[in-house]
Amino acid sequence: MGPTASPHLSRRGFLAGASAAALAAGLPRPALAQSVPLSAFSTPAFIQDLAANPTLQAALNDAWNINANGWTEQAIRGNPFTTLFAANQDYYYNPLSTDLTGSIVEKVSWTAFPNRAVFYLDALSEQQRFEFVDFGYSTSAPIAPIPATTTICAEQTGGEIPANGPTNQFQPYGPRGWMDEYCEMAVTREGDRTDGRITRIDFVCENPEYWYTLWSVSPETVLEIYQEILGRPQITLADLELHDAAGNPVIDPGTGRSAYNPLNKWNSGPHRTADGGGAMHLTSTPNTLQTELGLAGAATVLRNMGNANGTDLICCAQYGQIMRNSDPHIGQISNQIVGFGGGFRVSLADPIGLYIQTPTFTNYVLPDDPNLPEGASAADCWTILRGQETLPGFPSNFNFLLHAKFEIPQAWRDAGVSFEVGDIAVDGEPIRYGSQMLPTIQVALFPRAVAADTPQAPQPCVAGLSAPFAKAQPQQIMYQDLWDGYNASAVPNARGVAMTLASNTIIVAPRIMPGTTATLALLGSAFEAEGALPQVAFFREGDTSPDAAITVTVEGLEDVVYAVPGNSEPGPQQLLRLTVDVGADAAPGTRSVSVANAGDALGETAPFFLWVEG
C-alpha cells in the first residue's frame, strides 16, 4: 500500500455487495416474479425518453431490443473462432427464449473508485491518488508506466516475467479513461478553475450504447436531455455531432442524419465548465454494456482451478482486466452462481445495465452553519437525475441510478446556507477532489439465475491450452463513412497516446434496407491477403449456407490501430472494406457473418453483424 492508504481501498480487493461467502452458505436470494420468457429487452432503468411521442418511443424500444438481443447472442456464443477457450458459454442464456420460472436475482456490486489506481500507483499518497482520479495526472508525482504483463497473472499461469519487461502508459486512455469501474464523474468548481472550490459532482454509469441508439431515433431528444441534465441551454445540436476535418457533419448512411460524437465537448473530461466538459454517459473504452455482457458470458465457464479468488479466476480464464474492482468480482460471482448446488445458468436481469447504488453517507459531516434546516444531512445533496431509486419486482436495496449529482440543495441556499460541496467533509477531510466520494459509492449489475438441466463440467485454464486458431476473427462492423469519420478524429488524453474516436464507437449491426447497396468497414484480426483477399458472407440465424439475397465484394484490406470497444488500449487491428448488395427479396432480421482467408472454408459465424430492416 501507499503510505496513507484509505481504509476504503485495497490493492488486492474491493468492497463488494455480493459475497462469495454468502453464496457458499446457500443464503436465500430474492426471487423475481416472472415465469415466462421475456417479451422484449427494456431500456435501461425502464427509462422512456420519448414517451411524449409514442411512435418514436416504439422505434427506440424496437431498436434497443434488437441491439440487446444481438449483444446477448454474442455473449452466449463468445468468439466462435476460439471455441476451445469459450466452451459451454450456453450457461449464459437469452431471456427472450428461456423459461424464467423460479428464477432468482443476485446483486453484484463493487466500489466505484478505480482500483487499478490503487494497485499500480501504490507509491502515491492517498491525496495524490485522489488528484490523479480527478485530473488524470498528479501535480506532485509523475505517473510512471506500468508493466505490460503483471507478475500476478504470471504467477498464476506459470508465465515468466523478464526483469526489465515491456511497459505501457497507464491506461485506459481518453479524457476519462482511467475511470474504468463503470462509473465516471465530472466535477464543477468555482470560477471554472481546476483549483476552485467544488460546487457540484456528476456521477454517471449510463452505457454509450443507449445514447447511440437514442440518437439514431431522435437527435433532438438527445440535445434536450443534454441541455436539461447539464443545465446548459447553450448546447447546440452541432456540439453533439461528429464532424469531418472541414467541420462538416458526418452523415450516417443508416439514418441519413448526422452521426453522434460520444466524446463531444459536453461529455468529455473530468471537469464541467460553462464552455464544455461534463458527464452524460460512460466514455472509458472498457465501459460498455456489450463488453459487460461478453464478460458475464465468458465467466459462466467453470474452471478446474475453482473460483475462490476472482483475480486467480480472471487470470485462468483470460477475460476482462485484472486489478479492477469490477471485472474479477463480476466474473467470480457469475462463476460461483453457475457452479452453485446442482448448477445454474445466468443472464442479466431486465432491464439490463450497470447501475449506481445510493451512497453511504455515514462518514460525511456538514459544516456548522446556523442557517442549515433542521435535520439536514449530506444525503440531501444527492439528487437522482436519470434512473430510479427502485423498480417494481426488485428488492428495495436494488437501485437503478443512471446519473446523479451531489450539490447543495436550492432550499439550503434559499435558507442562507453559505458553504459549498467542497466544505463538506468525508472521513474527516473536506472534499477537495470528487473522487473522495467514489469509495462510498457502489456500482451494481443484477444477474438472474435459472436452474440448469445438468451441472457443467469444469474446463482447464485458457493459459494451459495451446492456441492453434489462426482463423480470421471479425470483431466490429460499421458503415465506411462512419469508420472514416471516427478514425480521422484524434482523442487527446492525459498520457499523450495516439488514439482516435474509433475507439469510442460501439458494436452494433449496421441497418440496411432491402434493395440497396452499402459500403461497410469490417474490423477484426488474422485477416490475410496472400493469394487472395478473404471471403465474407452473411448468414441468417440457424442457416448453414450464406444468405443468397446478400452479395459481398471485398474491396481491400488495410492495417489500422484502435481499441476495439471494450479494450483498454489501442492496438493493431485489420479492416476489410466491403461492398454489400442487399437484394430486394432479403428477409428482414439480423445476420451473422463468416470470414474465411484464402484456402479456408466459410463456416462458423459471429452473430449480429448486419440488420436488414423490414
Q: If you had to describe this structure to a student in words, what would you say it looks like?
A:
Helix content is 20%, strand content 22%. The chain is of the alpha+beta class and 614 residues long. Strand 24 (550-562) and strand 25 form a beta hairpin. It has 13 helices and 27 strands. It has helices at 20-24, 54-77, 115-120, 126-135, 151-157, 208-217, 219-230, 237-240, 289-298, 310-317, 326-339, 410-414, 480-487; strands spanning 104-105, 108-111, 146-147, 167-168, 184-189, 198-204, 251-252, 257-258, 272-273, 276-277, 344-348, 355-356, 364-365, 382-388, 400-407, 425-426, 429-430, 442-445, 447-451, 473-479, 511-512, 516-525, 535-540, 550-562, 571-582, 589-596, 606-612. The model is unreliable at 1-33 and 80-86 (pLDDT under 50). The longest helix has 24 residues, at 54-77. Among the domains are: 20-111 and 287-309 and 321-353 and 448-454, no CATH class; 473-612, no CATH class. A 4-stranded antiparallel sheet has the order 5-6-15-14, with no helix packed on it. Residues 1-33 form the signal peptide. InterPro entries: TAT_signal (IPR006311). Keywords: Signal. This is Twin-arginine translocation pathway signal.
Main-sheet strand order equals 5-6-15-14
Number of helical segments with 4 or more residues: 13
- Rounded to an integer in angstroms, the radius of gyration calculated over CA atoms is 24 Å
Overall SS class: alpha+beta
Number of strands: 27
The shape is: globular
Major β-sheet annotation: 4 strands, antiparallel
Mean pLDDT: 90
Signal peptide: 1-33
Protein name: Twin-arginine translocation pathway signal
Keywords: Signal
